[in-house]
């Protein structure tokens, strides 16, 4: 599982962050690198942002490499893991942040059309493929070394049904939530920790546009803490869970949304 670090650092660890070139994934990669981990930054179509993340990690004194590939595809996932391990060493920390393309997602009732039914099925399949492919590939090595840490990036609204018209996201993330519990039970005896970190609304380029300001205002009004999370807020929770201080934490689901999901749960209770 890499070095044992009582000070919370990740020196001696190797991390793979899928979808690590932008937004939340980039913040996670930078934060893990800043704590001393060597980080493989996975991306699909944008080498320049991924390269900037790698440069930032290297400037902080850690090793990093950008690895291209759609981890929802089996062959591409195998190549990503092989290149990451070849460049940095065997993977101790896997952060499953990849979600597949977001450009086709639009609001639509779940069962009002065959189009929406098919979209939900596709999104759930893509999400599970991105997660399962990587877990399947890194778990044998973690077992052989006596442990590791897997973090699944969820969505805090999924447990309350998500936003109206966005069943595509809620169902996919809910399926991943259940997978996280299954993996925590199955892999615990091997010393492998599996936890889910679930952001709420986080302003990134993925949701940038004319409606972003209105979404942020609504989220801030609904959150007990009165603010939305930033990518770095999510990254800090991930770093906490993969550090030695959390070695007794597995199967956890941590919402990082300023408490907004508390109100969502009450609303549907």
TrEMBL record:
Q: Locate the transmembrane regions by residue number.
A: none
Pfam hit, one = adh_short_C2
Q: Which Gene3D superfamilies does the record match to this protein?
A: NAD(P)-binding Rossmann-like Domain
Q: Which SUPFAM superfamilies match?
A: NAD(P)-binding Rossmann-fold domains
The record ties this protein, via PANTHER family, to: 3-OXOACYL-(ACYL-CARRIER-PROTEIN) REDUCTASE, 3-OXOACYL-[ACYL-CARRIER-PROTEIN] REDUCTASE FABG
Family label: Belongs to the short-chain dehydrogenases/reductases (SDR) family.
Question: What is the protein named?
Answer: 3-oxoacyl-[acyl-carrier-protein] reductase
Q: What gene does the UniProt entry assign to this protein? A: fabG_4
